[in-house]
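Sample 3 of the quickstart, ligand iron/sulfur cluster:
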Amino acid sequence: MEYVEKRVKREVRSQLDLSTGGHITVALSGGKDSMTTLHLLHEILSMRRDVTLDAITVDEGTPGYRDICVERSRKLCDELGVDHHVISFAEEYGITMEDIGPRSGVRTPCSYCGVLRRRCLNRKAQELGSTHIATGLNLDDTVQSVMMNISRGDVERLARLGPHTRIQPGLVPRIQPLRSIPEKETYTYALLRGLDFHESSCPWSGEAVRNDYRHVVNLLEDGSPGTKHCILSSYDQLRPMLRDAYAPADLRQCECGEPCLEERCMACRLLDEIIIEPRE
Ligand code: SF4
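Result:
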C-alpha cells in the first residue's frame, strides 16, 4: 500500500501545480480505479485549505449496474466528507444507454457512451469551477490508449492523451494520478484499503474495441514482464516531441456550447445519428 501511495504522490506532484490552490474534481464511476483515486487524493490533499476536492458521477442509465455504482460512490463521498454530484444522460440528453446500446449499429455502445460521458463531465466540472478533472486511468488503460492510437496512425490524438499540461478554453484539463499503477495493483490496493467499490463490469463493455488491446498488452506483459511500464516510459519520452509537433488546435464553439475542432462537436453528431435513425 505504501508503494502505491508513494508513486501516486509522485504523479500528483508532477502533474499538478497547486502553488496557488486549486479545485480538483474526481470523475467517480464507483469502480476500483476511481474510488482509489478519490481516496488517495483525499489522503494527499485534505489538509490543504486552498484546495477543493469533490466528485462527479455520470449516470448513463444502465439499470442494475450504474445505480449500484452511484450508491457506492455516494457512500465513499459521505465517508470522506466530499461533495458528490450526479449528472445523468437522461437529464442532459433526454436519452439513456438503454436507448443508445441497441441502436449503436456499426459503432460500439462505448463509442457513444465515452463521448457523451466526457461532455457531461466537462460541463459539470466547468459549472463547479474545477481547475482539473482527475480520472482513474491506470497503467493498463494508458498503455492500451497509446497502442490504440499508434495502431490507428492517429499521432495527433496520441499527442493529446493526458495528463494535460496545456489549458484549452472551455476544456477542463485532466490529470491521471494512477497512470503508473498496474490494474492488478490498483485492485489489490482497493481491496486492502476496504474500499466498497462495484466489481461488476458494465454490461456494454464486452463490445469495446479496447478489449483486443487489453488482450494483446497482457500477452506482451506475460511474455516479458515490465512491458507495460516500458511502453509508458517510451511514450513519456516522446511526449515533449509530440507536443512540439502538434500545437494546440484552434477550437471553435459548437451550438451546444462545447469546444470542438469541427463545426459541431462529436457528442452532437453522435446524438444526431442515434435520434435520426429509427429504432428497429
Ligand atoms: S463500458 Fe462503455 S458503455 Fe459502459 S460505462 Fe464505459 S464507456 Fe459507457
